[in-house]
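#structure-requests
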Amino acid sequence: MNTPLNTEEKKLIRAKKMMLWFGMISLTMSFAGLTSAYVVSRNRPDWIEDFQLPEAFYFSLLAIMISSLTFYSARKNVANNKNSMAMTLLFITLLLGVVFVFLQFQGFEQIIENGYYFTGKQSTITTSFIYLVIIMHLAHIIAALIALLVVIYNHYKQKYNAGQTLGIELAETFWHFVDVLWLYLFLFLYFVR
């Protein structure tokens, strides 16, 4: 049975959501700065203009986009008290997140196999930028995976129900944010050379 929230609980919920949004706005500004530096740096004479994104990055984009759908569906199932289905969807989301990370490292391997290095004498400013941007994004994916593990644990402990979904909402919002961020970075790296 759901009890109505009092004023203090509503303020706490609003504060938590605002903190998440401020954090995501800060991250957006960080990545905007990095991509701006990328644009400025591509005028250098040692910039690689024919660099192609590895095939693994295309598959990672697909994995992360599907994971957004499964996370959204999981929250909807929690709201409808379909806890078993929600847990299944949360685990699928986790699996897709791990697949995304694996594919990112596969992409790094493909870049190196093509003769491009991220650091050292053989590196270029182009590949160093790509490496930096993707590693920063991966750090945030790891944070999102940790948040997802907390949601899975809390759901297992039956802390979520139709009227109490704040934790899953916050984790889902952050998950969608890192997904959209990868979509932006992928398109940016694909079109801006």
